[in-house]
Structures are given as C-alpha cells and as structure tokens.
Write a structure and sequence with these properties.
- With 317 residues, the protein is α+β, with helices and mostly antiparallel strands.
- The chain folds into 2 domains: 190 residues, BirA Bifunctional Protein, domain 2, CATH 3.30.930; 105 residues, 3-Layer(aba) Sandwich (Rossmann fold), CATH 3.40.50.
- 28% of the residues lie in helices and 28% in strands.
- The protein is elongated and about 80 Å long.
C-alpha cells in the first residue's frame, strides 16, 4: 500500500471532531482530505490506499507518564481498505506497528498492544493502543489504532476497487502518533536499559550522531600533527559519505584515562560506533579499531574500508 500513499502535508486545526477516536469520519476536515485525494491524486484514489498528514492540536491526554502542556504534533495515517477485509487489515497493521516500535527499542518486550475495551464503540469499530511500559514509572501510549466503518449512506466516500474497479465504501484504519510523547518514550527507552554503563542506547538509525572519531596519541606531551591530519581526513571522508558526525569531528586522547572518558562521553550521547585511530598502528599500516557502543567490543578494520563498511551497517539494519 505504500506506493499508493498520498502525503497531505502539515496543518493546524482546532476541530476536536477531526481528532475524535471514531467520530473523525464525520468531520469536515476528513471530507476535505478525501476530496483532495479524488481531485489532486486521481490515480491513487483506489481501494486500498492511504492518506498521511501532520497536524498540530491539543493533546488527547491518553494514558502516559508524559503530559504535554502545549499543543502537540500528530502524525496521522488513514488506511482505506476493502470493507470485507477491514478486521484482517486492522490486525495486520497493529502487528506491523508493534514490530516497528520493538525494532527500534533497546528492550522490545516493553511494548504491548492494549485493547480499548472501555471505549464506547459504534458498530463494527475497534480500537487498540500500543504502549511502552517503564515499570513503576508508568506507561506511554506511542500509537493509537482505530478501525472505523463509514456510514452506509456515505456515497461520497466510495472508491473503486483496485483490482475489479467496482465502487465500494471502504473501511478506515486510522493510526495516530503524538510525536512529542513518542520521541520522549524513545529517549527514555534508550536510558532504561538496566546496564551499569551510563549509555544512551538509541537505535543506530535514530542516533543523532552515527559515528565518532578518537585519535590515540603515542606520547602525552607532544600532539602529533600526522595523527591530527589523519583524523581530519577520516572526518572528511565520512561526511562526504553523508554519515552524521559531531560538529567538532574528532577528539585526541593523550592517555588511556582520557580515551576512556571520551568513550564514556560518546556512549552518553548515544553514538553507536567510535573509530579509534592509534598513532603508532594506524599511521604505519592503516588499521584502526571500530568500537561498538552496545557490546563495548572493537573490531579491526582497514581505513580504506571504513566508509562502505559503516554505510552497509546502517543500510542493512
């Protein structure tokens, strides 16, 4: 369904009905977006299809240890699916969404699907929350999923079947993510790992900095110009490969204590990999150490292989 997606961009709205768990299908904004699909994207106005939008509005105050004091940003996705397969698609979407959150977590078991049995639901409607549990601190709702049946008299919302072309009234599966609480949950997830090390275990794809560079000097008193030049060169190569690095690029360590402190700083910043360039070894044979934040282990890699090696790590994840 992703190739059929239509991105409607960003907007702000004070219409509470458009953010209602089940009543959004009766809102004027939902109708406007559907008409925009028909008029501006006729080739994608088929069933199944989906609409994406970003909206600013008041928080819905879902169960969460984070309660924003200001308006939040909603990422909303509406899946229009065949009515007779609505429940099947709903189960598939909730499973895929949970897997997505688990994939980017340092502790996948904290995510759970929570049915919203206490909600008063119209006929044919379903609702679940995906929540991250942080023990005694509480839970964070990271995503809300709802299955809504359009009223039978809503002929304006009919879409042709993508295979047969027959017009039909689709079922709607809506995904709502409050971005600010969800981002806080991902950050808290990176801290709540139970390890002795003070590391921010952000997923390598989400980490602001993908790699750091530390040069290890042979002597404490004299700064090696050659080592500095090599660190600057590696920094430039990685930036050209479009890897995200800290603004200062690299740091030099004069002894083992300084190196340990520097690596601890990288771990607290959530940097998943650090390149260790030893003045004596790297300058003589081109070999360096690639240290992993998660395992605290290092592997030996030749300097000429580093850009492609790192890109493959991030590409294959």
């Amino acid at each position: 369904m992703r190739p059929l997606a239509v991105n409607l961009g960003s907007s702000s709205s004070t219409d509470a009905l458009s953010l209602s768990r089940f009543g959004f299908v009766h809102s004027q904004l939902f109708r406007q977006h559907f008409q925009q699909l028909l008029e501006s994207h006729p080739s994608k106005a088929k069933c199944p299809t989906l609409l994406k939008q970003q909206r600013t509005g008041e928080t819905q105050h879902s169960p969460s240890i984070f309660q924003p004091a200001q308006a939040v940003t909603y990422l909303i996705t509406d899946f229009f699916v065949e009515p007779h397969r609505g429940l099947e698609h709903f189960y598939n979407v909730q499973r895929e969404s949970k897997i997505w959150w688990m994939r980017y977590s340092s502790n996948p078991s904290r995510y759970a699907i929570v049915p919203q049995a206490e909600l008063e639901k119209p006929a044919g409607c379903q609702a679940i929350d995906i929540r991250a549990s942080f023990g005694t601190a509480g839970d964070v709702t990271v995503e809300q999923l709802s299955l809504v049946q359009l009223p039978a008299e809503s002929e304006d919302f009919q879409l042709p079947d993508a295979r047969t072309g027959a017009p039909q009234l689709p079922a709607v599966i809506r995904s709502v993510i409050e971005l600010e609480p969800a981002c806080c949950a991902l950050l808290l997830d990176g801290c709540d790992h139970g390890r002795e090390a003070r590391s921010l275990l952000l997923n390598r794809v989400l980490a602001p900095y993908q790699c750091a560079i530390a040069g290890i000097q042979k002597t404490e008193k004299i700064r090696s110009v050659d080592l500095q030049d090599l660190c600057a060169h590696v920094t430039d190569v990685l930036l050209r490969a479009r890897l995200r690095l800290q603004q200062e690029g690299y740091a030099l360590a004069a002894n083992a204590k300084q190196l340990t402190q520097q690596l601890e700083t990288y771990d607290r910043l959530g940097v998943p990999y650090a390149l260790l360039l030893d003045e004596q070894q790297t300058l003589s044979n081109g070999l360096l150490q690639l240290r992993s934040r998660d395992t605290q282990l290092a592997e030996t890699v030749h300097i000429s292989d580093i850009p492609d090696y790192l890109l493959n790590i991030f590409r294959d994840y």
